[in-house]
Amino acid sequence: MRLRSINGLRCKQLKLVLLAFFIMFILWKWEEGTYYNTEDIHPDSLVVSHPANSKFVDQRTSSDEDFPSVDSLPQPVVKVGKQVTGAPPPVPLVGVPANVGGEQGASPSKSKECNHRNGRWVPDKRRPLYSGFGCKQWLSESWSCRLTQRTDFDYEQFRWQPEACDMPEFEASQFLMRMQGKTIAYVGDSLGRQMFQSMMCMATAGEERADVEDVGAEYGFVLAPGAKRPDGWAYRFPSTNTTILYHWSSTLCDLEPLNPSDPATSYAMHLDRPPAFVRDNLHRIHVLVLNTGHHWNRGKLRANKWEMYVGGSPNRNKNIAAIWKAKNFTIHSVVKWLDAQLPRHPHLKAFYRSISPRHFFNGDWDTGGRCDSMSPLAKGSGISLNRSEDTDAEGAVMGTRVRLLDVTALSRLRDEGHISRYSIKATQGIQDCLHWCLPGVPDTWNEILAAQLL
């Protein structure tokens, strides 16, 4: 009887040991990413936040550069959601602590990880990083406010000082050396294109560079018959073999013509598929920056003949029939897909950039909204938040290896930095309070990106 009891005890101990080894094995595999769930996102299981919980769901947006034309949107445009007037505003730091910005002899904390979201705008006479007059090779004329009738340029002379740490100064030659043999890709809407043009100006210090090669054809960026512009640009710096490119994908959905032989065909807007360009080129991209947000409205879908598809078929799921739900579903879908790819591409660093805020005051873009302030930082100079103002973007990257490039709150303080009424393509009485003057705020987005690549 005693022998049987001892054997039973040993058997139990052996089972516990085996169970412990099994649990350790599963945890090890989880860390390695082998067991990461790569299944498709299902609309029924996706938890998304309503526009009422996000201050930056934009209802009506511009075309790529010609803001007032709105791509000839049919009227009226259906509104997606409402901004919440009762939501707490960004916290303006009037009397910031001495260690923010490293002033008054205080040294930045070395034990605290640099949080680029929080900090403040500080004057810097060394800015801008390049000249709006000189960077004509890369900078669109309509975004270079130095080429317009604007006369105030104080907005150019500010830099972002993160809280409790210093952000390294951007230096073009050093950055290109760090990016030697690498490809940086921006994929998104016209705000993504602004970031791309900003980076080209920063990487060249705004100087003419005859040695920089146009390699757009390598990525399929050719001007299609009847098109105003190709769907992307790519340039290579031969000295370091660094490629910087941009691909137009305003909603981050894969678009597929329903009838390729018909020039007037509609397009399947696959909410659960990343853009084909990203799928096909991911293996040769080292830094990927995605963004979307300002093209999600019924007017854009109708004007572009986009029809929402999920699972290869027209969407019949009411859970994502609303535009704001479709947008959130797409963001979650593309981020989850990208996260599943990262173990196969260890060279790749992936970012999702939070939404760029609009600054229409006293109306919207077509109802007299204005952003022609000439007073930088009139609403405060700093931000101290414990979460992103773009809750949709933050929720999508949470728990993934895709990083959030959080620029929403710090950009919210810069309402004087928009193109405003100085757009060279403006319609009378309409201001562009969506796009930014360059040099300007998007340069800071790239500085934060460069700092996170160290």
TrEMBL record:
The keyword Transmembrane helix applies. Residues 167-451 form the Trichome birefringence-like C-terminal domain. Pfam families: PC-Esterase, PMR5N. InterPro entries: TBL (IPR029962), TBL_C (IPR026057), TBL_N (IPR025846). It is a single-pass type II membrane protein. Its main location: Golgi. Keywords: Disulfide bond, Glycoprotein, Golgi apparatus, Membrane, Signal-anchor, Transferase, Transmembrane, Transmembrane helix. Residues 112-166 form the Trichome birefringence-like N-terminal domain. It is found in: Golgi apparatus membrane. The keyword Membrane applies. One of its GO terms (cellular component) is Golgi membrane. It comes from the Eukaryota. GO terms for molecular function: xylan O-acetyltransferase activity. Belongs to the PC-esterase family. TBL subfamily. This is Trichome birefringence-like N-terminal domain-containing protein. It comes from Triticum urartu. The gene is LOC125546661.
